[in-house]
Known about the structure:
This protein has about 425 residues and is of the alpha+beta class.
Amino acid sequence: MLKRFLAHHRFSGLLLGLSGTLALALLLFWMGSKPQEEEPYLPSDSEIMAALEATDFHNSLIPPLTPPPDWDRYTLQPGDRLSHLWQQKWHLPISTLYQLLDQEGSSHLNRIHPGQHIEWLASRDGQLLALRIWRTRAEGVEWQREDEGFSFNELTTQREVRLLRLEGTLDGVLSNSLSEMPEIAGQEGAIAAALDRHLPLRRDARDGDRFSLLIEQEWLSDDPTPYSTRLLAFDYQGDRMQIRAARHLDDGRFYTPDGVSLIPPFDRIPLTRRYRISSNFNLNRLHPITGRTSPHHGTDFATPTGTTVVSPADGRVVRGRTHSFGGKYLVIDHGQGYITRYLHLRRFLVNQGESVKRGQPVAQSGNTGRSTGPHLHYELHINGRPVDAMRVELPSVESLEGESLDDFLQHSEKLFSGLDNQLHLDKLAQLLPNQHE
Length: 437
């Protein structure tokens, strides 16, 4: 009864306008019961504020599930630890791994070994939807999220990998230009979104620009549509940008033919010095009123009002607005799916649409919106999913060097030959490393 009543917005607003003593008295009156041996837990004003701040604003800005999320994949390497991969590379809640280890099929997680192929599907807010571990090309196991917990199934199905080369001329938005290609029917949104992560299409794309794409699709024998679509290489030639790049096997990121990264190096924090962290990133944080999971998708720094906030990497300001809950907030797109957000600001130092450099002042922290005190709420999203910016593995190099550069040059030469139609795709498929066994 108490939880249902407190979930009502008008009562929440009333509580926020009352003093702590009066709010507690009203809560006790509403419960209408005699004192118990153990007094019920009553959230403080600050807990109520923090809960509303997280659920009403932060979560509302998570991008919707359009286009649908795509499968991610990884081949286990010697020395890999599943718990480290789970949090640092795959950006999944560690509590979900513990949950799977307590359910049917956990022995398959305990017996994983180098060379084994793992695939997972996650929602935009970072929650695991499905997980597959393949023993062979046609045999594996799968967990799928249900209302409570996960279901476990054995998989026996043949998988097929196909390469596609697409070329066209931009006419409006990219998805429209791809919609006329029957070989990718239904996949144009996902492919356009993948290219949009690596190029400033919304800013610099113009009708008449030419593009070529090398696509890898993976199919299951009993499924009429591909369950995984990946961009391997692209060439974009337009009036405002000319970019050619390929995916690197080692880190999955894109580099130009000479090994220059399309995404710049990232600093860990968006401040000129370290401040105390007052609230950590937590996908499993419980709402103090409803008792339900209410994730905190960022890191809060206890910064005095007026503290300079800097961009952690090169990028472009895509939003600078004011919200009743988040106050003045800023969003910077850094390319390749990396986006940062800054909430409760006092003042903007850059304008929407402006390009910014790593370390450039972009705002001053403040206490605007629904805030429990002066602080900076900082978020990092990768491919539409919030991740822990204090723990995630960040891009650290501008150009590949040494053995990593040699490996990329050898691999990308084949990809670019397929992209330029100088090598038949069937031949290219035979030359590429097989990551699907």
